[in-house]
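Onboarding guide, step 5: your first structure request.
Type a short instruction followed by the sequence, for example:

Predict the 3D structure of this protein.
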Amino acid sequence: MSEIDVNQILSQMRALRATAQGQGPEAAAATPGQNFGDLLKQSIDKVNETQTNAGELRDRFVAGDPDVDLTRVMVELQKASLSFEAMTQVRNKLVNAYQDIMNMPI
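The system replies with structure tokens like these:
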């Protein structure tokens, strides 16, 4: 099994998040007091927000809103789906890491 540098992975995740939010990579550096739990909660809240927005857009399209086109609805629904799948994969990795730690001999 290979060694994983957690700080390197976190910095890559921050850079990807900043890029996705339209910010430059220099904005991705975490503040020294920020903890992992807060980052995880923010990510989950962002996924929830994405899904809520996609659902509202879908409902507006179904209701016949002329300002909403099918292409936009489909793109937003795919974004919501991908963000949820990514969050699920992160959760799975965290659970696996927790189980590995718990199974380590003392």
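Each response can be followed by summary notes, for example: Residues 34-102 form one domain.
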